[in-house]
């Protein structure tokens, strides 16, 4: 596995975290089918920012720091990436069709006419985190 793939996926992961925050930045964001509380968006943003900072530090420090420090940075970053990926998938749940007597209609999304952009970003994030985990485990980075 080439480290270049990991670097490109790191940049794409940063874009997903930033775009999710921009897309859902209002006090009570409305996208998809329901209004989203600030909590899940905040978890996604904070964990994503910390994951990105720790992961970039892990990638850039390499052999400059001790092996224990590098290992700790990598593991903490991976845990946070998994939190980001799972939080993003939970944000995608807003697109599930609602049925029943008290279900409300879909809210029009300002960036797209459906969940395509979010689906691409967050499923891509899960795939990217799988690649990060694999690259870490086989010491490709």
Structure in words:
By secondary structure, the chain is mostly helical. It is 66% helix and 4% strand. The protein has one domain (3-137). A two-stranded antiparallel sheet has the order 1-2. The protein is elongated. The termini are close together. The model is unreliable at 27-33 (pLDDT under 50).
Q: What are the key terms here?
A:
single chain, about 140 residues, mainly alpha, 2 strands, elongated
Topology:
Layout: H1 3-23, E1 29-31, E2 34-36, H2 38-61, H3 67-92, H4 116-137
Antiparallel strand pairs: 1-2
Helix pairs in contact: 1-2, 1-4, 2-3, 3-4
Ranges where pLDDT stays below 50 over 5 or more residues in a row are 27-33
Report the helical percentage. 55-70%
E-strand count: 2
- Percent of residues in beta strands: under 5%
Task: State the end-to-end distance.
Answer: 9 Å
The main sheet orders its strands as 1-2
Helix-strand string: HEEHHH
* Shape estimate: elongated
Count of individual helical segments: 4
Structural class: mainly alpha
Largest sheet: 2 strands, antiparallel
Average pLDDT reading:
80
